[in-house]
Amino acid sequence: MSVRVLTVVSTALASNPLGDPHVRALPVIVPDDLREGERVPCVWFLAGYAGLGARMLSHDPWEEGLQERLIRLRREGRIGKMLVALPDAFTRWGGSQYISSGAHGDYGKYLAEELPASVEACFDVSGHGVVGKSSGGYGALVLGMRHPSRFRAVACHSGDMGFRLAYTPDIPALMNAVAKHGSLEAFARAFDAAAKKKDGRWFAPISVLAMCAAYSPDPTQPLGVALPFSLERGEIDERVFIRWLEHDPVVLVDRSDVQASLRKLALLFVDCGSRDEHHLQWGARAFARKLRTYGIAHTHEEFDDGHRSTSYRLDESLPKLFAALNS
After folding, report:
1. Contact (Cβ atoms closer than 8 angstroms) between residue 222 and residue 184
2. Which of 153, 133, 147, 142 lies closest to 53, judged by CA?
3. Per-residue model confidence as pLDDT tens digits over 160-209
4. Exposed, middle or buried by CB within 10 Å (0-12, 13-18, 19+), for 158?
5. Domains of the chain in sequence order
6. How far apart are CA 252 and CA 184, in angstroms?
7. Which pTM does this prediction carry?
8. What is the C-alpha to C-alpha distance for residues 128 and 37, in angstroms, rounded to an integer?
C-alpha cells in the first residue's frame, strides 16, 4: 500500500470565519497493484477531535498502523482492493465535527462534495463509504444521514451521541476558563498563545468551544458562538443546549427524513466500549434501541474497553465496509 497526497483547493472553506487554511492535503492510501481504470471503493476515515486523518499513517511500535492493517486484512482475504482517504477537517478550535456552521465554515460541502470529487478525478471509484472514531464517528453518522447516495456504507466507532451524558461533564471547564480569563475572547487569545495546547487546562475548555462552534453558532455573540451556560446563574443554559441536542444522533434519528436516509445505506455499523470514559456507550445503546424501534437495519456491538487505543476495532468495520460497497 502506498500513499498518494492530493492537494485540494476548497471554495467551501475559502474565507471561513476562523481563518483556517482552504488549501489542504488529502492523503489517499492506494493498493500497489491497482491497475489504471480499475474501479474500486473508497473508504473515508474521519479522525477524532483534535486529530488528523494523516496521523493514521504514523508508525507506532506498539500499535498496528492503518497501512499495515490494510495489508494484513487483505492478506487474510477479509478485504480486497480499496482506497482509503484521510481528510483534514481541523479548525482553530481543534475540529469541525465534520459539519457546516456559520462559526467555523462549510465543512459539510467540503467533505460531501469537494473531497470526493478530488478523489474521483484521480481514481475510478465504484462507491464511497465512511468510518470514524469519536468525533469522527459522529461525522460518519451525519454524512450518512445527510448524503446516503454519496456515502453508501457507514461505520461509527465510539461516536459522539447521547449529548447530555457525554458533553455536560466538560462544560464547566469552559465556564472556569471564561471566568478565569475574564471573557471568551481573552481565553481564546490565551489558548492561541499556549505552547502546550493539549494540556488539560486548555484541552477540555477548547473542546467545548469547538462544540459551540459546531452546534450553537450565533453571529451576534463573541467569536460567533452561543455558550451553553450562564456564568451569572452558574448553570446550563437550556435554551442554547437544546440547539446542541438537535444535532445529537439519538435525537436526529427521530426525524422521518433521517430514517429514510439511514434505510438507504448498504451498511450501518455502530460500536462502543462498555467502559467509555465519555459515557458514549449509553448514547450508542439509545441510538441502537431507536434504530430497532424504527426497523432500520444496523449492527450494534459493545466491547470490553474504554475510549482510547481501540483502532483494533477497524478489523470489524473495514471488512464490513468493503463487503457492503461491493454488494
Report:
1. yes
2. 133
3. 999 999 999 999 999 999 999 999 999 999 999 999 999 989 999 999 99
4. buried
5. 2-162+248-325 (3.40.50.1820), 166-245 (no CATH)
6. 30
7. 0.97
8. 17
